[in-house]
Design brief:
Keywords: Signal. Helices cover 32% and strands 32% of the residues. By secondary structure, it is α+β, with helices and mostly antiparallel strands. Strand 11 and strand 12 form a beta hairpin. The longest helix has 23 residues. The chain has one domain. It is globular, with a radius of gyration of 21 Å. Strands 1, 2, 3, 4, 5, 6, 7, 8, 9, 10, 11 and 12 form a 12-stranded mixed sheet that branches.
């Protein structure tokens, strides 16, 4: 109970600091306050120290950047900007930095409502896709919001290197697409799969999708966004 009360106090102080910094423009004060309170906040949401990737694998296991960049977290309805983040898509782990102990530490995925990387991509913890081989910790990129979600699973695998090298393997990046509707995941590998998942008649909506310049083979993300927007508008 004391831990919860203490956390609430820290959050209130943190939000007060944000408001003050926005009004006064004291970015340095905000940064100092943030680093002062972050370690206590992390104790409640972290899952231990992050294990570095093998140096015998060529490339890196991260999405977007291999260096910490400022992203954002939303936990228990509270939005935290300016959080140093890495997203390891090989092990499906979200990583932050502990400024006191100078360590990379894990954030428990089930504690995260959503997070955003520095490139603007937004991710969310979505459990339940247990039959999917690459479900990992259940972290998906969000393309749409609302009752029907278009989800993207970015992940990396490894493959053996045959040529003589100081590396044994290399990372290979892959992507899968889903529609999440009525608490059910629908794997989407072609346009027909999306029509079936949304229970729409292709003849009725194909023309509108084409007019919007969306094609699944050329740009799956745009296609899913357009299709869901059109079906929700009807």
């Amino acid at each position: 109970m004391r831990k919860i009360v203490f956390f609430i106090f820290l959050v209130s102080q943190f939000l007060n600091s944000v408001a003050f910094c926005q009004l006064a423009g004291t970015n340095q004060s905000f940064l100092e306050k943030y680093h002062e309170q972050l370690p206590y906040f992390q104790e409640l949401i972290t899952g231990g120290q992050y294990a570095e990737a093998s140096r015998l694998i060529q490339g890196d296991p991260y999405r977007y950047s291999r260096q910490f960049e400022e992203g954002s977290l939303k936990i228990n309805g509270v939005y935290y900007p300016g959080v140093p983040l890495l997203y390891d898509v090989f092990r499906d782990q979200v990583v932050t930095f502990h400024p006191i102990f100078n360590q990379k530490i894990l954030i428990k995925p089930e504690k995260i409502e959503s997070f955003s990387l520095a490139n603007g991509e937004r991710y969310q913890y979505v459990p339940g896709n247990s039959s999917y081989l690459h479900q990992g910790n259940g972290i998906y990129k969000l393309l749409t919001y609302g009752e029907v979600l278009a989800l993207v699973k970015h992940y990396k695998t490894t493959k053996e290197l045959r040529e003589l090298s100081r590396f044994d393997q290399e990372y290979v990046e892959k992507t899968d697409y889903f529609i999440y509707r009525n608490d059910t995941f629908y794997g989407i590998s072609r346009a027909k799969d999306a029509y079936l998942a949304l229970e729409v008649e292709p003849k009725v909506i194909k023309k509108k999708v084409k007019e919007a310049g969306a094609n699944f083979r050329q740009n799956p993300e745009k296609f899913l966004q357009v299709l869901i927007q059109l079906t929700q508008a009807e």
